[in-house]
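Subject: Sanity check before I submit

Could someone independently write out the structure tokens for this chain? I want to compare against mine line by line before I put it in a report. The sequence has 307 residues.
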Amino acid sequence: MKEQTKKQQKNPQDSTQTNKILKHILDFHYESYNSQEAINRQNLDPLLKVKEYINNKNTQKNLDEIAYVALVCALFAYGNVRAILKFLDSLDFGLLDSSEAIVASDFPYYRFQKAIEVKLFFLALCEMKQNRALESILHLHKSRPKPIYLLINECIEAIWQVAKKYATKLNYTLESHTSKPNGFAFLVGTPLPNTSVLPSSPLKRWNMFLRWMVREDNVDLGLWREYICPSELLLPLDTHTFGVCRTLGLLNRKSYDFKAVLEVSENLARFDKDDPIKYDFALYRLGQKGIIKKGEKVDFSKLLLCE
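---
Independent answer below. Compare away.
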């Protein structure tokens, strides 16, 4: 009982006044970065490549085209942002229209992904695009909503199913569940062995992809609002945002995992139940700019001065 009381005293969530201050801070930073200028070649973000693709007047595109390009950009969004964009700049997204062209083309490797694994990823997305696979998954979710991690799992399963078929044709072994290092599994994720259990991974890049596609403001695209409500989304939690959230008292869990994602997403919903993940960018910037430092005690009155 004493231990529980101690935790409550340390947790800013348990103070109504602190919650009001924290909401004010997060709302301010959300508004500050909710602009077209928040992402450009000076303020880098993987979403920039998607926006450049959309704005390219020489490229015909529809909703499906944009979704698959966005998925490529999101899943390769790990590591240094300059390296990410350099790699994305080297890709020809027009290849997603032709499996024959993909097979005939050379692909670059990227960090943990071999060139052939990048090729297999493109082949999988190409066939899924032709079969409108993502659209089918979305329509099913709209008619029978499910937890968002199960929708992500369906997408992961669909990619693996097609990729394995092409891997066999190209004489390449592709295993979804293995103890050996696997660049494709790192890129896409691995299907759940049982949908009754939670993922262990925070699914950061998948949740970021859904944020891009579902939320609609001056940063995010909002192309899938017809299928998914912003209130269903989960925070794209990386290790840096994890530290910021723990410092702010938005997160008690010490393990960086999917349960931490659920906890912090639920807590953010206290500030905006209809669109809790809008605070993702604000949390990221607060950490990136060093306004909030991991492990340091937060003076909420001073945080207001960062405005």
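---
OP: Matches mine. For the report I'm noting this point. The chain has a mean pLDDT of 90.
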